[in-house]
Amino acid sequence: MQGHSQAWRSHCARTKQGGAARGCQLHPACIRSKVNYLCAIKTPVREANMPGTSIGVTTWIKQVLLGGVAFNRIGCNGQGNKEKGMLVGRIVDSLFKDYCKTGKIPEGKAWARKRMAYIAAALSQRGVKPLDANVFVKRGGLKTHMDGTALRQGVLCVLELKTTQATLANHRAAYDVACSTKPTIKIAGETVPNTERTHHQLQLAFGVLASKAVTGMVIVSASDGAAIYPLQAGTPSHVFDYTPPKPAAKPKSTATQGKRKAAKKKKPPKWPGASVAAAGWDDFKMLKSGVAVLTKDGKFAVATAARRSSEKPPIALLTEAADEVGATVRLFATPSGKSWRCYRIAQKYIGHNRKGSRR
């Protein structure tokens, strides 16, 4: 029962398993009331599992396992181009996350909804019922945002979505083709093929391990259907025991060292609140540094406010805070008369007035 909230214990006590942290059978009342149905995920994610020094599991695969060698396959037809692939992936990913949260295919472009229909049908055929999306988990020095979580036969199942421009036939023909530059990699002392399937299974295995789920599946959305690949057993947990190296300290000149220390200790102005300065976001917590942590749709943002409209954003402070909590967005709000202007750092401006409506 360790790791469960009090409300979760009261519901899971009705099951034969008593709410064991790994592989507990979810009682229907737990699902209907949505009381911490993710067991050991939902509560730790927002508090104890907030990330510190860690890297994403996909970055770990590319930089550590592959040694920074770009994945390249020769002779695989109909795979499309990278730029279009990224666009297709973003659109389908957005619809998939909405589907995982609501159980319904959301409105969108016709071709994207068609892909979602393939995905929904494939999951339904296997008795998979989506629960949530974009769930953050961390274990040691590795972290990831799982694309989706679901119930299958009463146990927690992790969903990882992959998108390809290829047809199902071309996708399957290329899925087990090894990289032409680095055909094999070593995992737990064993030499395995450096294939797309291997990468996907490693990412899925980490999500299942870090979330204490029972199983998982990779969903590949192709142009004419969806392929499902269940979790392959056999990846030992110690494979993911990784400690990122500490970044080398940059030499500081004695002339500016004192100024930098003073600037670091200086806290930003009091955050006015997400409702008035960052509409669409919710206040989550305040860090000791004075930076606000916001949340929306399972994502985290860090934010500060300015005293005057001419002030520049404290990028170093926001970056440090983002690394501390695993935030993917940095926001900076400046006063403008009776309104607030909220900027996404290095991105376009979003306007809000003090009542929280868009300008």
Report on this model:
The chain is of the alpha+beta class. It folds into three domains: 1-37, no CATH class; 51-233, Lambda Exonuclease, Chain A (Alpha-Beta Complex); 266-353, Trna Endonuclease, Chain: A, domain 1 (3-Layer(aba) Sandwich), CATH 3.40.1350. Helix content is 32%, strand content 26%. The chain has eleven helices and 14 strands. It has helices at 6-12, 28-33, 42-46, 57-65, 82-102, 110-125, 168-175, 196-211, 254-265, 274-277, 315-325, and strands spanning 55-56, 128-139, 142-152, 155-163, 184-187, 190-193, 215-222, 225-230, 282-286, 292-296, 299-305, 329-336, 339-344, 349-353. The strands form three sheets. Strands 1, 2, 3, 4, 7 and 8 form a six-stranded mixed beta sheet that branches. The protein has a six-stranded mixed beta sheet with strand order 9-10-11-12-13-14. The protein has a two-stranded antiparallel sheet with strand order 5-6. Helix 5 (82-102) packs across helix 6 (110-125). The longest helix has 21 residues, at 82-102.
